[in-house]
Amino acid sequence: MAAAVFLCLLLPLRVNALSTSAKSAAVINADSGEVIFTQNADEKLPMASTTKIMTGLLLCEYGNFQTEITVTEEMLRVEGSSMGLLAGDKVTLHDLLYGLMLASGNDAANVIAFNLGGSVDGFVDQMNWKARELGLENTSFETPSGLDSENHYTTAYELAKLAMYAMQNEDFAKAVSCQKAVLNYGNPPYRRSLTNHNKMLKMFDGAVGVKTGFTKKSGRCLVSAARRDDKFVIAVTLNDHNDWQDHKNLLEYGLSSIKQTEYSPKYTSYNIPVINGTQQSINVKIEPFTVNSLETENITSKVYLPKFVYAPIKRNDVLGKIVYMQNGKILAEKEITANTDIKECEKTQKPINKILNNFKIILKFLGE
């Protein structure tokens, strides 16, 4: 019996190490997409205003922030939370993004929908198309705001995947990490201040977003993200009456689960032939890379560099990339850049001599 107890203590306890008050929850490594924690994470559930992650993402990807819109009565036919828009107001897409993500404005969501999709239904089609593009097979949108609707749902895991993708957009990430924004809209436009509803930005060290949500049907929903010590995690809870405390625990658990490993590829230096340059080749070096992953084994890399490059070349020009993988799954991609300038040869050289010289350079490096 004692031996059996001792053996149990040696077994991994990750699955039962954490629990939440949520009906569904998920935590992922936002650098790699690795799943750190799940709790009923594949059940389809309403997600309230966390829907606005998709709405804001589409605005950041396809909208022109400087576009100014005159709000109409038709655009404002929506209930619930608001950034305070009235018919006749003038507002830019930039300010709509902040009204959407900070004040959780359903009015902002509808105005965005009309601008990008021509109508709410047209924009919803775009939302669902983007969901399919991202592989979110258990997600369906019927509103741009997140108000309850029969076929409006997602899962905790897929919402985490969506947030991970959205946070790669700099404009989106900047907006959701903002605690307070001073905007300019109205008729005529005037300055006003909006405060972010996401309390995690103040409650958790390293919190960087992303969105709150609530309806009677969905309960309290929350998507949060945190960066600390170069680690990045995203947590999601759906229908959770204790979401603030649960997210503190989930983010802390996620960050502590990720291991950092310095990895160097087999070859760290490459010579690339330079055509028509004052130097025959350029040497590029690949620095060690810190991999943030749950596991530290089976890490590989693949280098993509051209067989030759043309002068002129400027320092920090992108020449290629290195892809880091684990068990065939991409962990990260890093650019390989030039570390020096190389000028183009003077044009006094005869064309035939230039061609022969470049041919010799290529043959030389192909033979090495």
Tell me about this structure.
With 368 residues, the chain is α+β, with helices and mostly antiparallel strands. It folds into two domains: 17-257, 3-Layer(aba) Sandwich (Beta-lactamase), CATH 3.40.710.10; 263-367, Peptidoglycan synthesis regulatory factor (PBP3), Domain 2 (Sandwich), CATH 2.60.410.10. The chain is 30% helix and 29% strand. The strands form six sheets. It has a five-stranded antiparallel β-sheet with strand order 2-1-9-8-7, with helices on both faces. The protein has a three-stranded mixed β-sheet with strand order 12-11-15. The chain has a three-stranded antiparallel β-sheet with strand order 14-16-17, with no helix packed on it. The chain is globular. The N and C termini lie far apart (65 Å). The relative contact order is 0.13. Mean pLDDT is 90; it is low at 1-16.
Q: Please name the fourth-level CATH homologous superfamily of the largest domain.
A: DD-peptidase/beta-lactamase superfamily
Q: Give the name of the CATH architecture of the largest domain.
A: 3-Layer(aba) Sandwich
The domain count comes to 2
Give the CA-CA distance, first to last residue: 65 Å
Helix tally? 10
What is the highest CATH level, the class of the largest domain?
A: Alpha Beta
Strand neighbour order, sheet with most strands: 2-1-9-8-7
Q: On the 0-100 scale, what is the average pLDDT? A: 90
* Low-pLDDT segments, ≥5 res: 1-16
